[in-house]
Amino acid sequence: MPESPIVYRRRPASSPSAPSANGSSSAAAETKQAGLAARTALRRGFWGSQHPMVHRTVIVATFLALTVVTDALAPTSDEASLLEAFIPRSVFRAVLITWVSASLFTYDPAYAYPYTLAFTVPLVTMYFAHLGCYHMVVLQVFGVIPALELVSPKNHFDLTREEENQLRSMRSFRYITWIWVPLQLAHIVWGMYVASAWGLSRSQLALLTASIGISTGGLGINFAHELIHKPTKLEKGLGRILLASVCYGSFYVEHLYGHHRHVSTPHDPASARYSESLYAFLPRTLVGSFRSACHIAAARCVKAGVPVLSLSNEVYSLLAVSAGMAACAWAIFGALGLGMFFGQSAVAILLLEIVNYIEHFGLARKPSDKYEGEFEPVTPIHSWNSTACITDLFLLNLQRHSHHHAKAGDRYQILHSYDDYEAPQMPTGYAGMMLLALVPPLWFAVMRPRVDALRERNLL
């Protein structure tokens, strides 16, 4: 399928003066100086230089209030007392706030450390569970982040070609995606241990399962998505391990060889239609994506000359890995551990498919004028984007989705932003849009007018 071009843009700090007849060199110098000023302003801190102090104050106050209130509500237990002996709550709170504040205040595209914000989700889950609080991550991801996105600045910053070439080869960005793999596996094992050994109530077990699923699905599958698109065997292997740990290895096959080919067409089970609610989309995509993955994997086996019913079939091999993980969960942690393994997998898969729903809702490609049964090439118009800054850091710039579909192999640190005219924009970040999708009348009221506007421009 032909790839659409990427528009390289930079939002300048100020517009350079128009060149005069004999002043082209002076104009070039002014343009270079303006670009340098823009980069210097960013290096001083994206939040601090571009936006008022209230944004930073709101974020620190919110995280501080959240942790203080949670501390006050946390019951005293033997586990809490033991944990307090090693990491006092005041110390953990200070580290968390410093971590979040440093990542947001000093955001700089040239550095990888702000993207470590994703690591706070499993760490918060594990720490506060020891204090008897199992709701922290649910509140963090679907309460605090959507609220902050309403008042936080938008990230329109783009890289120049020179900066892109520099960042493309920086290994620090890769290390973050690699580190997530053992962290997620440890998180799942810890969750199975807690489920089997702590004697939790049903509500506590449900909240803990949801929290781990948010980590492994809302974040973990996104890390897997980043890894499986890369050319190295190491990264593809790490991505497959993450997908197997949530029982969704079929995503590897269907996404790479199905979704990216058929996106925004009737042939793609992961593209939501204009008239389709989330609750109509979910069963269609769950069944259709697995069926599509099986067909694609079988065709690949036939092409390679290997048996379809074998571990050479990528769908079956990853299902076997998931089955092995489930068997270990049963053998070591019993029925409750196995239930936790499957429960967090179900939450993870559900979150992924909700994200799929919002990413291409109503954006249908036109039939091709040249080839019967084919469709026009994918363009930036066929993916919803968002400039929500906080979610960008947690989700590795996944919200710059048009660039991803134009150049799927590009690493997350060099994905480009599009303005409203070049690509459709969601009103807020993924977390807020996922909540909106849960209420179809509100979703349709917000999103259908945006799709209609694209149709009026004859883009769909």
Describe the structure.
The chain has one domain. The chain is 64% helix and 0% strand. It contains 18 helices and no strands. Helix 14 crosses helix 17. The chain starts with 23 loop residues before the first helix and ends with a helix. The N terminus is likely disordered. One of its GO terms (biological process) is lipid metabolic process. InterPro entries: AlkB/XylM, FA_desaturase_dom. It is found in: Cell inner membrane.
Structural class: mainly alpha
Helical stretch tally:
18
Structural domain tally: 1
Cα-to-Cα separation, first versus last residue: 18 Å
Q: Which whole number gives the mean pLDDT?
A: 84
Query: Can you summarize the main beta sheet?
Result: none
Low-confidence stretches: 1-24, 34-52
- Helical fraction: 55-70%
Question: Which word captures the global form?
Answer: globular
% residues in beta strands: under 5%
Rg from Cα: 23 Å
Helix-strand sequence: HHHHHHHHHHHHHHHHHH
Tally of strands: 0
